[in-house]
Amino acid sequence: MTITLNPAPPRIRADLVVLDDRFRKIAGDEYVECLYDGGRWLEGPAYAPAWRCLIFSDIPNDRLLRWDEVSGQVTVFREPSGYVNGNTIDRAGRLISCSQGNRSVIRTEYDGTRTVLASHLDGRRLNSPNDVVVHSDGSIWFTDPPYGITSSYEGHAAEQEIDGCHVYRIAPDGELTVVADDFTRPNGLAFSRDESQLYVVDTPAKHIRRFDVEGEKLSGGEVFAPCTAGMFDGIRLDGAGRIWAATHEGVHCFDPDGTLIGKLLLPDIVSNLTFGGPKKNRLFITATTSVWSWLLTANGA
Length: 301
Ligand code: MG
What we know:
Elements: E1 11-13, E2 15-18, E3 31-37, E4 42-48, E5 53-58, E6 63-68, E7 74-78, E8 84-89, E9 95-99, E10 104-108, E11 114-118, E12 120-121, E13 124-125, E14 132-134, E15 140-143, E16 165-170, E17 176-183, E18 186-191, E19 197-202, E20 207-214, E21 217-226, E22 235-237, E23 243-246, E24 250-254, E25 260-265, E26 272-276, E27 282-287, E28 290-295
Antiparallel strand pairs: 1-3, 2-25, 3-28, 4-5, 5-6, 6-7, 8-9, 9-10, 10-11, 12-13, 14-15, 15-16, 16-17, 18-19, 19-20, 20-21, 22-23, 23-24, 24-25, 26-27, 27-28
The protein binds magnesium ion.
Residues 43, 85-86, 130-131, 187-188, 233-234, 272 line the site of magnesium ion.
């Protein structure tokens, strides 16, 4: 019997910058692998354990792509996608997506049909939902900057109907509320492991803010860390509470005390990242036209 293995993906040496000894505890492969290159502006990586695949968005090309962990193949998952940006998998294994084109947050059901979870606030259309996370209480939290309506590059150019770019919560019963209304353009967001804190990027302000989560509400919101390489986009936390953030030079890693402890430099602007694989110890990174993976000793939250 002949066993044919998949060809190894192209790789580059992991270009690490250690700024603090605490980053040395995080060991990873010598190489980061390029799983795909051929998108236009990739975003929204979400690892689906049940399907053993990574779903990600190619926003200007109006499609969702799927990298299969078993075969290594990348195929089209949905086209047109409605200019989907951020994705996540909810506690029941369903795909939750931010559609910039339809200005809504949608859920893909088990039978493939789609349910709109949020599209309007008080009768006015949302701007263009950007990134989304789920809470264990069944609520869904997302950000709503205007990147999908300021031009037709990654959505449909249109007037902004809501006065501002807010952070929202969709309650389990579907009720939509504003949880933060003092952002310029909120973008990536992530809960801490115990869900007591929510981190939210304000992209033009070039920083991450940290809130305390009190049931359905947020308090605090102080600046957690500034961006020292362009602007932040997506963020994720690992199980030790470290914050991993997409920047223009690669991935920055912050200790929970706010110290930038290290970097993984990459050739292109990084838009977003997520932990995946069966052990959540594989960091998937979307960077402009490509998707990278780095196996490391830290595990996702
Ligand atoms: Mg984003």
